[in-house]
Amino acid sequence: MRKLTFMWKDRGSGGGGCPALYSVDGGYVVQGIKLTDAERAQLRQLADDEDGVFVPANVLDRLREIA
Question: What's the CA gap between 33 and 35, in Å, rounded?
């Protein structure tokens, strides 16, 4: 099991914690809004254990600030 460490959430989100970014050993986990079936159908070679979520650009753009 991966240990997730909360980094930050969308600057525009209200009191909730979504969308958000977490760090894990070797990478990141994003918490976002589920895609619709039509959006999900556009993902390429989606494995049974994979999924896609929408995350506002400001959540991921902040990674540049720590690089």
Answer: 6
Q: Return contacts of 31-35, CB within 8 angstroms, 24+ apart.
A: 31/55
Place of tokens 């979520």: 53
Q: Are 61 and 19 in contact (CB under 8 A)?
A: no
pTM of the model: 0.80
pLDDT tens-digit map of 20-41: 999 999 999 999 999 999 999 9
Give the burial string for 35-60 (b: 16+ CB within 10 Å, else e).
eeeeeeeeeeeeeeeeeeeebeeebe
Phi-psi region of 20 (alpha: psi -120 to 50; beta: other; left: phi over 0): beta
